[in-house]
Structure prediction request, 1532 residues.
Amino acid sequence: MATAGFQVRSPRLPAVAESSSNNVPEVVIASTTSTPRSVSTHVRRQGSRPASRSTTVTDSMRRSAISLDPFKNFEVSDLTNYSMTDQRWTLQRKKIGLKRKTKGSQQRQKRNLQSRDISISFILSHFTRKECLRYVQNPEALTPEACYCGLKQEEHIPLTELLRPVCRSKSSLNPLGFKTLMEHPENEAESSGGLTASVRKALSFGGSRRSKSFFRKSNTLAPVDTPIIQTPTICEELQTLEQGLSNGGPSIEHLLDENNPMIHRRDYGRDVLQEPKQTLGETKIPPPDSKWTPETHFRHFPTNAYGKIEFMNETTGSTKPSKYVRIADDTRMESVVTLLSDYWRLLEPNRPQLVISVTGGAKNFKLDGKKKEIFSTGLIKAVKSTNAWIVTGGVNVGVMKSVGDAVNQGQYIVKIKRKTFFSDEENDLVRAIRCLGVVPWGYVEGRKSLINEEPGEFALVKYKVQDKFGHLKPVSLNGDHTHFIFIDNGSRNMFKGSDDFRTRLEEAIQVPEPIGFGVPVVLLLVEGGISSIMKCVMAVRRNIPVVVVAGTGRAADLMAYAVSMTIRTPGGQYLMRKGHQAQLRTRITLTMLEFAENQAQQQRCAELLIECCSKANLITIFDINSNEAMDKYILYGLLTGGCNSSRLDQLTLALVWNRPDIAEQHIFPAQSEWPSGALEDLMTRALLDEKVSFVNLIIVNGLVMEDYLTVATLRELYNKACEPNSHLARLLQKASGQSYHHLVHVHSILLAMIKKHHDPVYLADTPDALLRNISINYKTFADPFLELLLWAIFSGRYHLARYLWERCDCPLSSALVAATLYQLLWRSLGAKNKEIREGYSKQKKEFESLACELMEVCYQEDVINAMGLVERRNAKWGDMDCMEIASLGNNLLFISTPCAQANIELNWRRGMVKAPFFVAFLANFFPFLIFWKTFIRFQKLGDDGGELTSWQKLFVFYKSPISKFCAHSTSYICFLLLYSYIVLFDFTYEMSFTEKLAVCWIFSFILEEVAEILTEQSSTLAGKISDWSGSLWNRFDFLSLNLAVVALVLRLFRSTFKWGRIACALNTTVFYCRLFRIYHVNYHLGPKLIIFNRMIKEVLVFLALLVIFVLGYGIASQGLLYPSRTLTSLNITSISMIFEDVLLTPYWQMYGELLLDEIVGSDKDRCHQESCIITDFCGSENATQCLPREHCVCENATDYSWVVSVLLFFYLIIGNIMLLNLLIAIFTYVFDEVQENSMELWKFEMYLLIREYDLKPGIVHPFVVFEYIWRLGKKIWKLTCRKSKENLDDYMQETLDALKVFEKEAIMTYSCNEAVAQEQRIDNRVKRMSEKIDRISKYIEQKEELEEIEGDLEWVIQEAESMKPAAERSARHSARSRHAKRNRSILPKQAHASPPPSSPPERKSRLSGRASPTSAKSVEELDDILNSELSDDDIKYELNHLQEVANTALDAMTPYTARSRAMTALGKQSRPLTPAVADHHSLAKLDSLSLHLEELEEQVRDSHKQMETLMQTILDRLDAKPSTKHIRTKKS
Prediction:
């Protein structure tokens, strides 16, 4: 092989030609420990960041720490990624006309080929296959004339073909594609400097004489003609070898003899393992008469099967091919791990948190119905929650087919960016669920098609899956597996060799990095035979936890039964009693039907099960017939089985699986103190994964959020949440202009959206400040839950935002801020992002509803405090109150709540308790009404908390919005009357006094609008102008004031005086439309104005449709009615007439003004001179007579009148019937839509009106200029002369603290009410009822089982009583016979010695030290023994013990409960059998009773058959365990 000279590379492929490391400030990098693999992955993922973040970000922040752009600069039209892919690049260049073959495309193609060659070189240099060298017939083989390897003689590969080296052409000698680089000298320098060094590093060249020939001493490429193998005559020698064999030369055995020097000199096929067991040069052919053994007849050869499989079946697998490779069963795990990670890239895009190895039944096993659904759902849920791998046998039978079906249902494709060997990023589509098949090579159907025809190319095999299978025949692969590893141990047509490899692979996966992956493995047992039990034994030997799916049959049920019969000793060992072992063997006989007549296999199976039960802590039982989820038991098995894992690792695993119930019940109670930073890291992960339950659980168990959330943590959360092409990433990119963001950039977004955001911590987190002061990272926030709420809103974590909202210090304002942000985020997206916009809209409504419900709770508990919450200023949001925040987000429902309306009513009459509108209007003209308490009453706002003084009452009244509204409305009506008088009667060339007064009035309007702009909420001038222009009435003011200024300028000049009158007259309409603003006060007229505003927009849409038909019909009709028009005859008058005829005439006709007399046209001919036969006399100026019309082409309007009539007919149908009815339908829809929310809209507009007049000056126009002068002077005094600012918080601090406590109590009340409402929902009530029914059914069933136990106990007592007579007779007979024998033995001895008389020595019984009934004791002792073993006290003890176990079992509800059926009686016993239930906890005393009865059987030989039947019957009844709270005790 050409690659045989390569040295074995390191177990990890290094990052080849990686980009330089990022110059990131140390304060930005998270202080987390990473393994070498995770570090390399982190570097790869961060490779796209700028090389010098400190300089680039600093430059951008020097421009402006706070963005000056208004909110529109943060709008994102589309989140679709339009990056240029290869297909788009090629097709676009083809359509444009540019050539596709460029230097860049060729370079990319070369690197793809080089990457392929690197992968092939790794496979050929690290993996081998096994082949049988000589055929030896196996006389015991089930297949006739089969070798020990499983192949027939004709199926063996000839030795000449096995030992033939791969002879490639000169162009293909270099497996790394170096010749391709040498063909292009312009790339030589680049390739030799980066590519060659990287490839050398990747493949670890050097150390062998062949590898040295690749490179010169100067690290440059060797000439292309330099051979890889230093003996270039290999092919020639092979040809000579074949010729010698054909001519009767030396035999193959002689040529391949280990002492042949020629073979050692060639040495071209060295084994690729780091510790080669055997090389091809040392290949030794066993003698023909030698015994066949795997060690002598199997040899390693380079692998010849690798590539991709494309499954042809329509319903099998996905369209993406599956990768495969053939390797030997003794391959080093380091090479396999490197293949999975660096070449197959199974760790991308997300690292797995678990590996599920599934084993079980094959061929005849099949899951149907509910069991299949439970298995598939639980398996896929476990895989998706942990990004787990699945490892199976890979064939299309049994449990492997069931796993494939589950994967097929849950499979999906993800798009990832991955690094190539040359640091290029490429997009790839991969299957998210990785299912790895470890298949014996000799058991694969159609394995010959998987062998590569070209060793230097990856094979692409089209494979057809066969559903049928036969005995001792290969099986098809399952098409739902994504990767296949074919294990070659030399055997063929046998399912051998893969189990041990799978176990070693699973063990290697569990090994920590860098040797392994450090990923936990769990074995899932589903049905199965003895091979599956052996797989479980190998797993528990390596401390791999096992989850048994009980209820699937055979091995799974046996394993579940054996574990249930295992007890734990005080020393921590797990044992199974002898009586239970006997029961297990009986159950094996009934379950494993294939071992019915094979006692040795039964014994072996029992021994394997007992060995598994010796580590019962690694085995978890899941009953597939239960209603529980399988993924829960997989996690529970990992937690209980992972004896070496720490509590932190277990908590991390529970977090990945999102099982807070297990963490709460088993992990947190076991450990109260955690390492420093452990919970913080888990909290960060839980926040990023949106695991709300875990966030709550970590907080409950001691994490202080104020200590956790620092500036560095929040900055890290924002940067990690910036997923590519996400809305948050786009917003922050526009704010910062960089790929790494700081909190000051978040502040810019909040400032653009909310208009006001004041937080010194955000402003302090800038790149410059961070470089100067590292302590910024450790600053904390006053309300950490609010900061996390903002982060959750921007990052799209809706459920987490809902949870964090309940824990904010100010939940009412926080809910309004959330609703406002969602509304503005919705507005910032274009219409193309429909799904995201719908999500924003839904969340906006949800948080607005939360604010309304919380407000209702507060309003019901305490009206005063509720209104205080609405009026409370929020320092973080620029001292805005809840009403102002709600208005930013158009939160109509909140403003419509009773509490908000009460606040609006108080603000409308600020400082007054009673002030009718009509009285307030009259009080502006008659001030004495202010002091009349019958009409107007004031609040107690005096200096001492009492009544106001007279001057204070005047001040309060004229500063109230209702008074300002009446005064300014009256002033505006006076202005309109003045302006109307000027337009009608006093608009002269010389400006009159009234006109000058109107001009002054208008300039006071302009001054007021400027003041309104300056008082808007935004902090920038552009933002203030944008906010001001958002109001429709402000736009009306802008239009009217601009028209007034234009009219004033035009009327000052003689030439434009007329245009000035036109502008002044037109402005009258705009000024009068502005009067609609007054109508908003009335709740009848206000909603109608909103409907009218919406209809105007629809009218514009209608006109856009109508103008097309008007222009089409108007131009067509006028062209036919006036054929004699020419361009030279046009003037201003004719142009206006044409414009009127083309546009206005069709428009009037649509409304019924048909103008039929005008569509006839003039009866005048127009002849075209060029068309006449004799052109000299027709159409000339001097011609007195023209030829008839038939000799010329002449036109008359009457010729086309019928065409115009037809056009009018169709025009009226379309315009008058279709378009007008469409407009009516649109108006109806708008009316119905607005009418539903008309009151909410009117209340919202009423709030805006009150806020507008609250900011207006108290003096009316045009005298308002004096108040503005006073305000300007006051502002100057505050900036220059005021020494100290009054702190209003000192006056309100006690009230603010009380409001905070009140708000917290309100949110708790709301949470309780919501919990009660959830409990009362129909679906929850039905769920609870179903759970109760299940518990009752289980109770009834288990009660019946306990009654059966009671019956069994009574039956045992009756059987023992019936045995008493037989036992007495047998005891008497035995006593007589032994007494006679003793007397015969004593008589001869008395002649020699006469010792003193004594009783014979007592022989100890095996019954726990009790005397044997066969001794010299009387028969009454036998009765005592029987009575003591079956006494009433023992029976009571048994029943009490059963009751205790039942109570414990009902509370715990262990995963597995088995109930047995009655077994067939043995022998000729015809006594009826009763079913019984057994458990290793509940029937321990019955087991001891059976042992006593066995001793009794040995002693009482006359009743041997009856006692044997009794014992077997007792064993048959020990099958299931009881679990109930009630038991009926009976006394014998």
